[in-house]
Specification:
Elements (H helix, E strand, L loop, with lengths): L28 E3 L3 H7 L6 E3 L16 H10 L3 H5 L9 E5 L2 E4 L4 E4 L2 H4 L8 H11 L12 H11 L8 E5 L2 H16 L4 E4 L8 H6 L15 E4 L33 H16 L7 E4 L15 H11 L3 E5 L24 E4 L10 E5 L1 H6 L13 H16 L2 H22 L3 E7 L2 E6 L11 H13 L2 E2 L1 E3 L5 E4 L7 H21 L1
Parallel strand pairs: 5-15, 7-8, 7-9, 9-10, 10-11
Antiparallel strand pairs: 1-2, 3-4, 4-5, 6-12, 11-12, 13-14, 14-17, 16-17
Helix pairs in contact: 5-12, 6-12, 9-10, 13-15, 14-15
Protein name: Alanine--glyoxylate aminotransferase 2, mitochondrial
Subunit structure: Homotetramer.
Cofactor: pyridoxal 5'-phosphate
Length: about 525
């Protein structure tokens, strides 16, 4: 593990005292001041704000365009969708990153607990990975699969060794959406069937085919896109129709009561019954595939009953379909207990798609399947200009080495379990925290109006807590069908001290909201 934070420093990059990064002594809190505290100053004393852990990395001063100019260009020269997806009322202008930290153009430091949407797996500008990238840049940037270059074969072998037999054949892409597109194509070619099933609330990408797989209205357009894709009820044991206190593979269970006997899950039985009903009413007798994330990502870190995927895989195969695990967000050790999310469900998929953390933010994806299924792809010609290029493969190979050598999978288990356990204490304290769930560093905190109804906390309330958390120095994400879940998916190099800082910040943000309410 890289020890990047070891001493305290006061002056900011621009010669002024930085109230977020400076300290007067070795303490963990300081009195709040400024705009953040003005709302409550009349009725309440200034809150005691958590202090960000120390860091000895010195970022480069920003000397580029003004923030106003950057925002003007973003509004007028970038597609309007760019502004639509921009977080925060006052956007964060990022200048530099190092490991678990990001600095904005004013020199303010943030703890990054969203990792570029679960993408920066081993830390921003990780020194080992950066050195590998620089070395490869001086040797060969790009050529395509029409030639043989060592980096592709070396990485394919290394990646295949991390997957169980018979998942040993790799095809490289540039993104998770592209990987999922190709997975659908391969499934249809191999089975000779057309229909594909996904879970409600799932997200499998933004390309035309992937939006068909995706089951979330926010990512849909009013044009034909389903192309034989259907969805079944998501077995969400917190928000769904059925659930209990022993259903999921997580350090933290739901607050719902459970009357199941040991080793039996009634909720799982009911969700499987819904799947069977779908088979009987919605799709042909033969299907092409079933797609599922081992833990839903954009859907809000939703976890299923322990045997749900195992039972579903059996039913899908009886219908002639293959089973595809979308590991775009759960792969590469993020769930802690296993390198791949599907392993936590005790299943063996026929195909695995991956991206995001595969190359720590460098554009790359992959589809891994069996030799038999891969042969069906040869019925035509498919060419990918950038997939598996020398630079991408070199970076991805270094990521695998870093995960192993720095024990980041183990760190995901240790820090993630600690964080969830502490968050569960906040759930028990605050009525608006309905559920805490996840594995490793794939964590969701679902916010509700109250625990009895489990109705989602309204967007404006979510925004208040979200903005406060950012203002105190922590960046997190949001997800869920109703935007009601905070997503915590940091680089896997974060420490327990970082977790404590986040917990203090999040507690203060929730407390601020409760006082205002």
């Amino acid at each position: 593990m890289h020890k990047v934070c070891s001493r305290l420093h006061g002056p900011s990059l621009f010669g002024k005292t930085d109230p977020w990064n400076s300290v007067d002594a070795c303490v963990k809190f300081h009195k709040g001041c400024g705009v953040l505290c003005q709302k409550s100053a009349v009725k309440h004393p200034p809150p005691v704000l958590p202090q960000i852990p120390p860091c000895d990395f010195k970022p480069q001063p920003y000397q580029g365009m003004s923030k106003d100019r950057l925002l003007d260009i973003r509004k007028n020269n970038c597609n309007p969708m760019t502004m639509k997806v921009t977080y925060y009322k006052k956007p964060v202008f990022i200048n530099q990153g190092y490991m678990q930290w990001l600095w904005d153009v004013d020199g303010r430091r943030y703890l990054d607990l969203f990792a570029g949407v679960a993408t920066v797996s081993v830390g921003h500008c990780n020194p080992r990975v950066t050195e590998t990238a620089e070395k490869q840049l001086r040797r060969l940037w790009h050529t395509t699969a029409i030639y043989v270059y060592p980096q592709m074969q070396e990485y394919a072998e290394k990646l295949a060794c991390l997957l169980p037999d018979p998942l040993k054949v790799v095809y490289f892409t540039n993104s998770g959406s592209e990987a999922n597109d190709l997975a659908v194509l391969m499934a249809r070619l191999y089975t000779g069937n057309f229909d594909v099933i996904t879970l409600r609330g799932s997200y499998h990408g933004g390309s035309p085919q992937a939006t068909g797989l995706t089951s979330n209205a926010d990512y849909k357009y009013p044009i034909p896109s389903s192309m034989g894709c259907h969805n079944t009820m998501c077995p969400d044991v917190f928000r769904g129709l059925w659930g209990g206190s022993h259903c999921r593979d997580s350090p933290v269970q739901t607050i719902r009561e459970c009357s199941c006997s040991p080793g039996h899950c009634q909720a799982n039985d009911m969700y499987i019954r819904e799947l069977k009903e779908m088979f009987a009413t919605t799709v042909p007798n033969r299907i092409a595939a079933f797609f599922a994330e081992p833990i839903q990502g954009v859907g809000g870190a939703v976890q299923f009953p322990k045997n749900y995927l195992k039972d579903t895989y059996q039913l899908v195969r009886e219908k002639g379909g293959i089973c595809i695990a979308d590991e775009v967000q759960t792969g590469f050790g993020r769930t802690g207990s296993h390198f791949w999310g599907f392993q936590g469900h005790n299943v063996l998929p026929d195909m695995v798609t991956m991206a995001k953390g595969i190359a720590n933010g460098f554009p790359m994806g992959a589809v891994v399947t069996t030799a038999e299924i891969a042969r069906s792809f040869g019925k035509g010609v498919h060419f990918n200009t950038f997939g598996g290029n020398p630079l991408a493969c070199a970076v991805a190979s270094s990521v695998l080495d870093t995960i192993k050598e720095d024990k980041m999978q183990e760190n995901s288990t240790e820090v993630g379990t600690y964080m969830m356990t502490e968050l569960a204490k906040l759930r028990d304290k605050y009525e608006i925290i309905g559920d805490v769930r996840g594995k490793g560093l794939q964590i969701g905190v679902e916010m509700v109006k109250d625990k009895a109804s489990r109705d989602p906390l309204p967007p404006e309330a979510m925004a208040e807590i979200f903005e406060d958390t950012k203002d105190m120095g922590v960046l997190i994400g949001k997800g869920g069908l109703y935007g009601q879940t905070f997503r915590i998916k940091p680089p896997m190099c974060i420490t327990k001290d970082d977790a404590d800082f986040f917990l203090a910040v999040f507690t203060q943000a929730v407390q601020n909201y409760m006082e205002r309410r």
